[in-house]
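dumping the sequnces here before i forget
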Amino acid sequence: MGGHGAGAALRASSVGSFAEWVLRGIGQVFLQNNPLTGALFLLGISLSSWVAGVFAVIGTVCATGTAMLLGVPRDSLARGLFGFNGTLTAIDLTFYLRHDWHLLAFVVLASAASSVLTATLQNFLNSNHVPSLTAAFVATTWLFLAGLKQFANLSGSRTAVIRAHLPHEATPTAASLHPQDLLTGFFNGFAEVLLQSGVWAGIVILLGILVNSRISAAAAAVGSLVGFGTAWVLGFPVQVMAGGLSGYNSVLTLIALGGLYYLLSIRSALFAVFGGILSVVVSGALATVLAPVGLPIVTAPFVVTTWICLFAASSLTGLRPIHPDDAGTPEHNLQHAGRTWDSTEPHRFGT
Amino acid sequence: MGGHGAGAALRASSVGSFAEWVLRGIGQVFLQNNPLTGALFLLGISLSSWVAGVFAVIGTVCATGTAMLLGVPRDSLARGLFGFNGTLTAIDLTFYLRHDWHLLAFVVLASAASSVLTATLQNFLNSNHVPSLTAAFVATTWLFLAGLKQFANLSGSRTAVIRAHLPHEATPTAASLHPQDLLTGFFNGFAEVLLQSGVWAGIVILLGILVNSRISAAAAAVGSLVGFGTAWVLGFPVQVMAGGLSGYNSVLTLIALGGLYYLLSIRSALFAVFGGILSVVVSGALATVLAPVGLPIVTAPFVVTTWICLFAASSLTGLRPIHPDDAGTPEHNLQHAGRTWDSTEPHRFGT
Amino acid sequence: MGGHGAGAALRASSVGSFAEWVLRGIGQVFLQNNPLTGALFLLGISLSSWVAGVFAVIGTVCATGTAMLLGVPRDSLARGLFGFNGTLTAIDLTFYLRHDWHLLAFVVLASAASSVLTATLQNFLNSNHVPSLTAAFVATTWLFLAGLKQFANLSGSRTAVIRAHLPHEATPTAASLHPQDLLTGFFNGFAEVLLQSGVWAGIVILLGILVNSRISAAAAAVGSLVGFGTAWVLGFPVQVMAGGLSGYNSVLTLIALGGLYYLLSIRSALFAVFGGILSVVVSGALATVLAPVGLPIVTAPFVVTTWICLFAASSLTGLRPIHPDDAGTPEHNLQHAGRTWDSTEPHRFGT
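..and the predicted 3d for all of it:
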């Protein structure tokens, strides 16, 4: 996508531009290219944890800055596509290390790595017209957390540890579900995408999606409910469901499949719901597979499920896929539905 | 491959067509596009377990039906390419859940997922001209079995469990090999592809291959012997060998490499035998790797080995690869050997 | 790359040609296409262990021979591209089996497999213009070592065993670092690429790189230091660092990124150093991930890190990537820098 050198990218940006790219980057965590959305997400994070808010900014800034230095195409930068993996990586690492300079150094290095990995994965998937989603965040986080176990000099800084263990068959727990579990679980489903929790955080985050796209906000809401419902049928522990931990992957999957990478229709909406259910099955599968190495599933279920559903696109002639470069909000996609959609020429995203 | 909508696909099929697609789907478990073959396989399965026979039909029907609803190309459907992963997934799940409505629901969902995954993997591999084989069955089964460990509400239904454990070095057992072990092992090698056992089941299944292609039947027989022999040299437990569990991956590998995806020649036959030996090594390796997560190897050794041997194709100028869309029986391929084989235009499969 | 049959390849080579291909193959372990380099590497190996030297030759000969029989393109053979994975596979297996005929049979089979896997991986990566590096060695070794755990008949021959275990958080050790640890660690960093140790072995190996390319020798030296330094900061055990086990992946990464697959510049040099640091993080991560299956990390950290840094190439417009077929020594690449580098026409490598 063009060959602007790093020099040109640096000259063209002012601090104001850069700040806008960072906010769009935060917005892209939920696949929303909108600086106001990003600002609301930042507010939502800070309501839950001000430290996470600070590191969210640090991570996005480092990732975007690294991308600039390496000379990535300017419009990917401007759309925030090199920010959001840094946002998530930085927030996630704050849970595992004491909040001191070790964490800061680790976060700077990891956010930089997440930008290289974003470029890597995007190029690897390019010919398939499939977006890399949050795969760079997943890969970077697993890399750094798996490595962390071996880094003895950081042992004093470790605060949380996922003990490697052999996966065993879960049995039903006695705890019963209360109505407020559905309420907290519903809103935590949005907050947990940014690794936060809290009903108010969730409300602000949902609002952030809403200011950019009503269809995506509706898709997110359906996603949170589908995730909660599927987990309830399968028998996930109540605290997991109430904590939104069975919802956040489904939220992202419904946003991606609900009008963003497939043109919205009855058929694609049903397929998106199927995707949400599948994301919960994938969450369970990944929890089992990652148990012996003590790694968290983060947003891998969302990435795996959405890739499965997008790679299938050219065979599923009942659905209309949208090239990642053309994909705007679901509303924008529907407006342009009259044009040819098999075109591989990237459209500029108009705001 | 064409753009027929789901509507057209539904109208064009009558119950008779659909039933034929389902039988061809069952036949494709052994890469045989032939409804009589599929019917014989179904008989073979039922000789071993009538429940497995019922679920084989349910799985193939759900997978084919899902593929129709999603609008996959009609000739892939007609060749049974969207059935066989559902066949295997359904049969496999019957071993892990009590035979009640939970199993039925799980099987319907998993067979539907296997169709989406078949489309996914086929598209991912398309540019490499490599078929996806039973990879969708492997992926779907691992997904659902790994997830099953986490689904507490299904714990009451679990009948068999593969306990996650750390792999340890195997030591030779005292048991010695008897001549009838070779006999049962030989025929079980065919039956175990469909997760069944029994000499009569194996005979009927081999007959099913034979009615479609004599070369493939010979390849299957060589495969079962190569698998048994390699396992004996390496020191697999006798009950594993007699149970055909060291033969079934080699059976499928020899069929795939023995005249189907490479034109049959002395050289490709030797390469196919090498593939069969390699599939036993891969079986051992996968058993080690999957031990800590408690998952079965199913047909993954066949898929991995055959992909290794097919991806190498364009460098191995001593062999003549056949594009998956052109591949008929080995006899058919030899007949058409005079034409240009580097052509990427799909031939219609003539019966 | 051309269609020379195996017959033509065999006729054209004399014993002398074949010997040269084998020596170039050994040289390619460090990405150096030079028979004198390969001879010096062989001397370095033999200084450390004459058995390893013998098996290095056996492995390279088997791999190259298998490649010839299968008919791989003649100039890949002549550049040693089908030798080095056999070299490494053979040496690595000598650590795990008693030095008897079982080991010889295993090595012959594994080296042959490594050639097939080299073709496989090279074709899979071809469209991305990314070299397969030592991935075939990694895959073959993991395959055979993981399988070895299951092969009871080889249990009497097993000499070393990596016990599968759950990874746990490392804590700092009391041991302190002495100046000679840096000296031994520095030179062991080169030797350990060939799975050897010893200061003299390391010196001879470094000399081997130097006779082919001064820039690659400098990159290797920087790599060994970067690996040692990063491991020291992160707190690896002293014996690991002094043994060169934290340096060898960084050595290979710096050679690959330092002027070989990216045109040498200040920017690419810094990127190469970042790659070296990342390779140490990846080493830690892989050690964690492989612990439950009891497999060694071998050169996987080098492969993963370099792939990450190369796949990112088309987005990182600040760096100039070099097509694997064009890549000569860094000096050669700089000389030809005037020509168009996006050209996908392979240059002949001039010596």
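The radius of gyration of chain B is 19 Å.
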